[in-house]
């Protein structure tokens, strides 16, 4: 039986080359049981005509399907679905399902009822004309071509084991070595191999540190305002959390309560205010931790984005007593979808973190680690950080000029750089309402409310990221924010 | 100042093309501060001669370094380290460190003191001549070329967002859709998008399910013997675990204690005995779970490796009451370094799993998910499963013949296929000693002891995987095992 050519439609949403899409269309028809073994496919000419593509494209797709044993060819009589093609199993009709489970009783722990983790952030930010979004990659700044080359290299036969092997609890040796020899020394940190662990992004690093050191009733100090996902991690783990208000220089060491066991801090660029902890405060914070016998988890957040002044040395580099657990990430300087970060700390801590990581996921995918190792060791990473620094420096100047020109108010911006400015709207404005209103003008801003620990958080703050907005749109975007504020009211 | 050509050495361990290695050597010298801005590099001719490579290779490496602003060229006078090249920071001498932390007191939870998670498995298994190892990829069976094509496609400009974007708590839509439409129906499972979650491998799926349903004192039944990493996950989470002895047909439903709240089971191929749960037992197990109001976590382990008989329908496909949480994985059929798996369950459960995954790691790396989506949708995955099934079927025949010929004893092998045979040595043999002895003959076997829950586990069992050993070596490898056993003693 011949399969009528009319049954073939290229899906509008499918991606890849035309050849790949044709191949996919045929394979899916077979896998779904719509095309059965022995059935004849349309001729290459007929299908090409029907789809409006060249005949060679269809021929190449058919050839690939032949090689994979989906199709067979019988000389001049054409192409047929292979007898060896996979058949969808016939298990009969599905069992009708009426959920009989009392899920509330079934859950030993719940995780979904906390803060929203910023998870209501828009995934379609790239459609906005003025995306003052924070923490996404800019296609114009990321060195996609060299990343692709490194990824292709890491797909080669030489790296077959790095790609495919179950590494159990181990890291990619090339990446770990590069971080130890080159990345950490640039933060003034010297660490042995058993003091480093690769993680699934900084989020995973913070999570691991929190489980091991700051769960089950431990008394923990965090910054206020603070990265909301960290508060959620600590809540889930059952820590007793004390928020400590930050000022223009970040976390004030004296304000950390005496009975604190673990301090979470973001010295490079405080999240979200961008304040950089001055050297004197870094030393005071270490001293305070020593006095009260607390540990410090240092999220060395955006240190590479110090384009105005050189970065301060990491807290960890000043740590004489092994009290600091260091969290690093490639999400901001490479891209967040990469999901690569690392933990640095004393060997006993890393041993626990490695065991927990092994239990929860074994190890980050080998190919991702090896690609990053190549990208770093070939110098592309540093080149990119410098390129981003220059671009962000330019954008920041334009931001500051536009903000001043339109009379908006900066609440915090840090002295070293970063990729965002922390803003405050006039008293009485709710930045969530402001953000909703600006949506209509294709302007994306981030309301500041989720960063605060309080039950009745201040509502006037908002964050303007400039890591994804083109320079030439900044002025107009800021003008629209000013116009929306002038128009008012955005009362909460 | 000129940098003497003698300072340049291509590292013997570095990988990649010659050009890449030269580029890496220069970039690393600059990043490490050994080469300073303004210093002159050797001529391309001089460096080429020194390294014994062609001049064009050096020229291409220098050109790339120029583009990345590590080097500048001054017409005919040659190449210099760029003034814009990154400089290593000078933070002065490192703080001397004497660890002052009482780590035992600092840990809120410990994770490293449990079973070894099989983490003492050899990472250098590929050097063994007779690797009867389980769960690693075989370079000869994996379709590396098409994987590379799909990965390259997923690195393209069209997929830039899928690669780079922070997806917050979301999955790759292409992969999730393919699993829902094509993978699950082949197991008789119909699931809506909010009933599926992509995970970092099956390990991560089991871990998530355990935290949500089987932690904090919950009464849990597991199979005995059983995947050791699952026992460790349950121990870490604080479950009350009852091991239930399996027989030649897997888990006997009637032996599950009345007060069990969650049952973990591996119906497709029991781990490690390879037994397949017969259809009647599947129905009985569901009935038992319904009677005692328990949930079931089904690790649908190696279902694709059913090359002897068609796979039985998944427990989940027979589940009328929403009691079954289904764990799927691509680790065995693609490769374990990929770290991709998935959870299927009722929407309230998936909501919790998604929240916990977001908190611990956000989402699996975008590129890995998208590459798998292409590989699956182009039909390569099914082609590979069939190819592997044929090869494993052949190897299994050779295994069984050799085992019979040399008088070794099979303890369990299952009727459907799989990629290993569960063996028992004569009474009194300790398979750990046997494995150690066989190391010297370049034979790798897996002692069975870690699979057992008991404090004094049986020691005579061992597992022979045949997913990575070439057919032509099987006979000789089995002969060596028989010889070692004949030689004895390997008493414990």
TrEMBL record, chains A, B:
* UniProt entry keywords in alphabetical sequence: Aminotransferase, DNA-binding, Pyridoxal phosphate, Transcription, Transcription regulation, Transferase
**Family annotation (InterPro entries):** Aminotransferase_I/II_large (IPR004839), HTH_trans_reg/aminotransferase (IPR051446), PyrdxlP-dep_Trfase (IPR015424), PyrdxlP-dep_Trfase_major (IPR015421), Tscrpt_reg_HTH_GntR (IPR000524), WH-like_DNA-bd_sf (IPR036388), WH_DNA-bd_sf (IPR036390)
Superkingdom field: Bacteria
Tell me one GO molecular function of this protein: transaminase activity
CDD domains from the xrefs?
AAT_like, WHTH_GntR
Q: What residues does the HTH gntR-type domain cover?
A: 16-84
The record's family statement is: In the C-terminal section; belongs to the class-I pyridoxal-phosphate-dependent aminotransferase family.
| PANTHER family tied to this protein | HTH-TYPE TRANSCRIPTIONAL REGULATORY PROTEIN GABR
What's the name of the protein? Answer: PLP-dependent aminotransferase family protein
| Natural source organism | Tropicibacter oceani
